């Protein structure tokens, strides 16, 4: 069975996961870019292998990688501002560009490793938030990226942003309806399942709008991968898109095989 955590527990867990993932990216930045100078000297060494490539194309790739860093959870990385400025100012004649290919390739390879670490670190969190936000109306849960580098704000890694862009409430425990809380807990429980291959869910339709009921199994399945979901529900809408897999349970009364038993005993036999 799915164990439903409270929204406070979910908030605390998400804050911890987000901060941990962010600092993994910071470590990757330090590992791959902090020590890049020796790699650049090696690339420029006369003993290094010649590198083919177009410096203009490599610059475009670096711009794209930088954009990923800027628009993804790494807004707090100092590298983003430095890279943007450096790439925009890069100018060289054709001869200099040929010489720059080795250095640019070295930098591009390091950037790719940071971006890949970034994607892997935040994949589960991003998948969960996308699923939840597909239900929410006039609001969405966002990560407060700009606050992540500050240890004092570790408790406020996420918040609720309203579509009018006028308000952002730190945390997710406030400004949510009972249905929204149900969605948050159901999908979170599904996304953090153990290695068990079968998931049992009892009456997930409680407090959910009918449109949400129809979307729920799809979004939960996206979190569970290949695991099987067995849902017990009174709502025909929950399984509306899975008609071939719906089993209608119709309990039937059985007669007491021994009519001489007492009334109480006969009641227990039905």
Present the secondary structure layout.
Layout: H1 7-33, H2 36-44, H3 55-71, H4 78-89, H5 94-133, E1 139-143, E2 158-162, E3 168-170, H6 178-191, E4 198-202, H7 210-224, E5 228-232, H8 263-269
Parallel strand pairs: 4-5
Antiparallel strand pairs: 1-2, 2-3
Binned strand content: 5-15%
Strand runs, count: 5
Q: What is the overall number of helices?
A: 8
Major β-sheet annotation:
3 strands, antiparallel
Spatial shape: elongated
Strand order of the largest sheet: 1-2-3
The helix-and-strand class reads: mainly alpha
Overall mean pLDDT stands at 76
Helix content: 40-55%
Describe this entry's structure for a reader:
The chain is mainly alpha-helical and 270 residues long. It contains eight helices and five strands, in the order H-H-H-H-H-E-E-E-H-E-H-E-H. The longest helix is centred in the middle third of the chain and has 40 residues. The two termini are 28 Å apart.
Concise account of the structure shown:
It contains eight helices and five strands, in the order H-H-H-H-H-E-E-E-H-E-H-E-H. The chain is mainly α.
Q: Can you tag this structure with a few keywords?
A:
three-stranded antiparallel sheet, 270 residues, two-stranded parallel ribbon, mainly alpha, elongated
């Amino acid at each position: 069975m799915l164990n439903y955590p409270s929204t406070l527990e979910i908030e605390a867990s998400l804050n911890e996961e987000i901060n941990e993932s962010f600092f993994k990216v910071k470590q990757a930045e330090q590992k791959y870019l902090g020590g890049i100078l020796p790699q650049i000297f090696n690339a420029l060494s006369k003993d290094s292998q010649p590198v083919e490539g177009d410096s203009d194309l490599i610059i475009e790739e670096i711009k794209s990688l930088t954009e990923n860093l800027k628009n993804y959870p790494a807004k707090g990385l100092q590298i983003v501002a430095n890279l943007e400025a450096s790439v925009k100012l890069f100018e060289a004649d054709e001869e200099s560009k040929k010489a720059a290919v080795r250095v640019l390739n070295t930098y591009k390879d390091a950037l790719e490793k940071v971006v890949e670490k970034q994607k892997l670190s935040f994949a589960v969190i991003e998948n969960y938030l996308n699923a939840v936000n597909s239900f929410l109306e006039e609001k969405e849960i966002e990560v407060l990226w700009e606050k992540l580098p500050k240890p004092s704000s570790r408790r406020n890694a996420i918040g609720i942003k309203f579509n009018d862009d006028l308000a952002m409430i730190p945390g997710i425990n406030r400004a949510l309806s009972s249905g929204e809380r149900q969605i948050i807990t159901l999908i979170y429980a599904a996304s953090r399942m153990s290695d068990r291959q079968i998931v049992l869910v009892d009456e997930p339709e409680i407090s959910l709008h009918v449109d949400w009921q129809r979307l729920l199994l799809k979004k939960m399945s996206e979190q569970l991968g290949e695991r099987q979901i067995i849902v017990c529900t009174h709502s025909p809408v929950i399984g509306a898109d899975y008609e071939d897999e719906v089993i209608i349970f119709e309990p039937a009364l059985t007669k007491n095989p021994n009519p001489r038993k007492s009334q109480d005993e006969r009641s227990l036999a039905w």
